[in-house]
Amino acid sequence: MASAFNSKPKIVNGPGGYVLEDVPHLSDYIPDLPTYPNPLKNNPAYSVVKQYFVHDDDTVPQKVVVHKDGPRGIHFRRAGPRQKVYFQSDDVKAAIVTCGGLCPGLNTVIRELVCSLNYMYGVNKVLGIDGGYRGFYARNTITLTPKSVNDIHKRGGTILGTSRGGHDTTKIVDSIQDRGINQVYIIGGDGTQKGASAIYEEVRRRGLKVVVAGIPKTIDNDIPVIDKSFGFDTAVEEAQRAINAAHVESESIENGIGVVKLMGRNSGYIAMYATLASRDVDCCLIPESPFYLEGPGGLFQYIEKKLKEQGHMVIVVAEGAGQDLVSESIQSMQKQDASGNKLLQDVGLWISQRIKDHFAKHSTMNINLKYIDPTYMIRAIPSNASDNVYCTLLAQSVIHGAMAGYTGYTSGLVNGRQTYIPFYRITETQHKVVITDRMWARLLSSTTQPTFWCAKDVIEDKREEELFDQSGDDDEQCPDANSIANEIIHIPNNSVKV
After folding, report:
1. Which residues bind Mg(2+) (predicted)?
2. Is residue 213 pLDDT above 60, yes or no?
3. Residues of the domain holding 183
4. Binding site for substrate: what residues are annotated?
5. Phi, psi for 299 (deg, rounded to 5)
6. Which of 220, 233, 280, 387 is catalytic?
C-alpha cells in the first residue's frame, strides 16, 4: 500500500502575480549532497554550444496570452542541463518502465533514454523493467545498452512489455532499493503518473537518493498542462488511412455511409484533429459533445439530409462518445479495467446498427453502411518523424533533470518549451476538448454538422456569464441545433468563443 506521507507542493511567488509551481529536489530531504561538474562540458558534441546550460531561474509560463494589467500567472521550471549534477556517471543505475496501453513512440523514448544516458552522461548501467509496474517485483529485468536498442524505434509497441495495474508501492520501492537503482524513468498516462507520484513519496519517506521522473504517454492527448503527448501526431496521421478508406467505400455506392471509430475514451482530440485534417468527414462525434439521434436537428435527420445532397457521407466517432445513450444498465457502466478506467460499450457497432435500424423502419431510402475500427492498428505502429523528434526531446530533457537532482516530476512541452511539471499537476484533471472554443467551431464549420446542443449540454467556463437558463425540465426535447447555434452567435456579449 502507498504511504500516507505526502510532501507539500513547492510554490514560489514573485512580483506581478508570478507563481512558480516548482518540482521537488533531492536536496529538499537529503542534506549536504555533493555536486559534480556536468560531464557535458567535456562532450565534443555540446561543448561548442553557447549558453547550453539552463539558468536556474529560467521558467516557462503556462499561458502565453495575458492582459497587460493581469498577473503573470503560473510558471514551470524550464528543462535542460545544469552546470552542476548530483550524480557521478559511474554511480548511476537507471531503470525504465512502460505502463498502460500501447502508443506510437514508446520504443523511441526507450532508445533515446538509453542512448542519451550513455552518450551525454557516460551512464552504462540501465535496466528495463519487464511488464509494467508489477515487473519490479514479479519479473526479471532486461539489461539495456545503446547497441541492444539501436533499431527498436523502427518497431511499434514496447520492447519492455507493458501491463495495467499491478502497482504495489511498497514492493516496488523495496525492489528499487534492493537492486541499487537510483534513477527511475516511468513512461505512462495519468494513472501511471499517479503511481509514479506514490513511488516518489515512498522514496522520499525512506530518505533514498533516488530520482523518480515521468514521461507522459497517452495516445488520446488527454494529459493536462502539456501541449500534446507523443504519439498523437502519428495517431492522427494513421487515422487518415481509415477515414480515406471509409470515404472511398461510401462514395462508390449509392447512399453509402462510412463509419470510423477512433480512440478517445474521455477526450476527442484524435477524432477532432483527424476530421480537420481529412476534409472528407461529414460528422464527428466526441465524448465532450453530447448528441441525440431522433427528432429535429438529430443525427438521423442530418444523415438523411447529407445523403440527399451528396449521395454519401463519412462519420467519425470517438470510442467514448455517446456512452450515455449506449449503456443500457447501471451495471454495465460500472465495470472497470485493471487501471480503474470505465469499460466502454462499443459505440461504433452500436451507432452503425442504430443507423441501419432507423433507415430500415422509418425511411424509404436504402443505405449501404461500412464500419471500420482501426484502433489497435493505429496504436501499434512506429512513430512518425514528428513524434520521433518529440520523443527525443522528452527523453533528453527528463535525463537532464534527473542528473541535476530534480525528482517527483514529469517532463513535458509547455508553449513549445520543455519543462518540469510536478506530478500533482499532471494527475489532477484530464485535458478535454472544449466545445465552446474556437477549434471545435472550426470543425463544425468544416463538416457543416449540427451542434446537437441542448441548452443543458453547453460546457461553460466558470468565469464566464451563463448563456442558458437550465432550470427547465431535463427531459425536454432538444430544439433544432442550428437555431441554437444562430442564437448563440447573435447573443450580445456572449461568452461562447466562436
Report:
1. 190
2. yes
3. 10-229+383-427
4. 218-220, 263-265, 319, 376-379
5. -65, -40
6. 220
